[in-house]
Design a protein that fits this description.
Blueprint: H1 6-15, H2 21-24, H3 33-36, H4 72-92, H5 95-107, H6 109-129, E1 131-133, E2 140-142, H7 147-165, H8 175-190, H9 194-197, E3 202-206, E4 213-215, E5 220-224, H10 225-230, H11 234-250, H12 252-277, H13 280-320, H14 328-339, H15 354-374, H16 385-406
Parallel strand pairs: 3-5
Antiparallel strand pairs: 1-2, 4-5
Helix pairs in contact: 1-15, 4-12, 8-11, 11-13, 12-13, 13-15, 14-15, 14-16
Length: about 400
């Protein structure tokens, strides 16, 4: 369970749009926090709200989709209704009228071809017009959603979560909150730039044994105590916080919503034709197969690619803040052991398997050790990382065994 196979790491590497770590981070020089803060320090800025009004989110949570028109079910319901109405209208036409329509359609082949080309041309122009450059990775991506709109949605989702967690939110004086805030401030101070400044960062610690953490596009970071218990060092915590911060900085939620909205336009046409042409039972199964193929071949791989990008960008944030990036791969192996058989099958998941992530990070860690040195950080001390990994993994196994015994489950 804890082995990091090079083969799986190479497979995951090919899913990333930008693989060389040195190229990913050829960004303009970051401005210091003091230059942007009237008081001179980031920690004095109002980037963190009171923990009772803040939250966080991490890798183990499923990705949230915006509750809006990008919801694929709304498109499919509209396509279903439209297709059924078209079929009912067609079936009520006299036979001679149908033949007349079919004859006109076949004789208008040239115009249909020109119209189809025009539609695809307009679609391509629309797509190209809405391409933008992602921060840090500099890859081109489709972005139909304004980041301000996504942050408003993030605030809405955050408030909904607060309704659920408010009785378990730890106060600012709690050691867990103080620890997470200290690491987060250090990460942000070291990586201060416009993209970081545009996010209103907040922290919430939820007293829950779940191994979970997540971030909203509006910057609220929610960490569960179950996750913190596994983070034996601040270096491991910095890796997970950096990953979640990367999602917010990169605008991954808006990117995912934009891509789905664009694809759903074509899906609307296909599903409408399916319900218009095919019998109801055949149309139902055809639509089901189309949805599953779309998820497996397009939606889930793209989500895993964004997760991989967040891993790399998060590692960059941690390296610039002078954390020991060598512990990042150990983090994911630790989570793999903690979750055990509860991990979903990778190709059916929005997230790469923990072992896959650990294997890929293991390959690029040397690049980030050099990047860390270039940031004038203190030299890393010589450590037996394998021994450290065994110690952490042994502790996690013991912890898991205790939890199983408490629940009366034999290993």
């Amino acid at each position: 369970m804890i082995s990091t196979t090079l083969r799986r790491a190479l497979v995951f590497q090919r899913t990333l749009t930008v693989t060389p770590a040195r190229r990913i981070f050829s960004i303009p020089r970051l401005q210091s926090a003091a230059a942007r803060s009237p008081s001179g320090t980031l920690s004095n800025m109002s980037i963190f709200g009171n923990s009772r009004h803040s939250l966080t989110h991490f890798h183990t949570s499923p990705q949230r989709q915006a509750i809006w028109l990008a919801n694929p079910y709304l498109y499919r319901i509209a396509a279903f209704v439209t297709g059924r109405l078209m079929k009912r209208w067609w079936n009520r036409l006299p036979v001679q009228t149908r033949k007349k329509y079919i004859s006109r359609f076949t004789k208008s082949g040239d115009w249909i071809f020109i119209g189809t080309l025009g539609l695809f041309g307009a679609t391509a122009a629309f797509y190209a017009y809405h391409l933008e450059e992602a921060p840090f990775s500099h890859r081109r991506r489709l972005m139909l959603v304004d980041q301000k709109e996504m942050r408003a949605i993030g605030d809405f989702l955050f408030n909904a979560d607060m309704e659920m967690f408010q009785e378990r939110v730890l106060p600012d004086s709690d050691p867990n909150y103080i620890r997470v805030r200290a690491v987060a401030v250090k990460l942000l101070e070291a990586n201060w730039c416009q993209e970081v400044a545009d996010v209103s960062w907040k922290i919430v610690i939820v007293d829950d044994p779940a191994i979970n953490a997540y971030v909203m596009p509006s910057g609220q970071i929610v960490v569960f105590t179950g996750m913190l218990e596994l983070m034996k060092t601040d270096d491991m915590l910095a890796a997970i916080l950096g990953h979640e911060m990367a999602h917010a900085i990169m605008g991954h939620m808006g990117e995912n919503a934009s891509r789905e909205q664009f694809i759903n336009f074509f899906s609307l046409i296909i599903v409408t034709l399916v319900w218009f042409v095919l019998p109801d039972v055949t149309a139902f199964f055809t639509q089901w197969i189309e949805k599953k193929l779309f998820d497996i071949l397009m939606k889930l791989p793209y989500s895993r690619k964004l997760e991989g990008e967040a891993d790399v960008v998060g590692l960059r944030l941690a390296a610039r803040a002078c954390y020991d990036v060598r512990e990042s791969s150990i983090l994911w192996e630790t989570l793999a052991i903690a979750e055990g058989d509860e991990q979903p099958v990778e190709w059916l998941s929005t997230h790469p398997a923990h072992e896959t992530r650990a294997g890929y990070l293991e390959m690029i860690i040397p690049d980030f050790v050099e990047y860390r040195r270039a940031c004038n950080c203190d030299e890393l001390t010589e450590r037996d990382m394998q021994a450290f990994k065994k110690t952490v993994c042994r502790w996690v196994l013991e912890k898991r065994r205790e939890q199983r015994e408490q629940r009366g489950i034999a290993d």
